[in-house]
Amino acid sequence: MCYPMGEFLIGEADVRLGEIGGAPFYISRAQYEVWKHTDLVIDVVPGRGGMFSLDNGRERRFLTRSTVCAAPPAAGGGG
What we know:
By secondary structure, the protein is mainly β. It has one helix spanning 29-35, and strands at 14-20, 23-28, 38-46, 60-68. The chain is globular and about 55 Å long. The relative contact order is 0.19.
């Protein structure tokens, strides 16, 4: 979801991944645990998004792409 600056309430269960256009980007800790070995790329592309995607009427939406990164080796994993 996309919120105006200062309107998203950040909690202890939110993890900051970085910034998009100077605005901070967060996901929940549970989502982070699932996606932490993945590179996420978030683009803005032509098309209609949902109510919280981008400002309605601009015909733009978010598109998330991902690639799986190599997971670190397990501790004590021989080989």
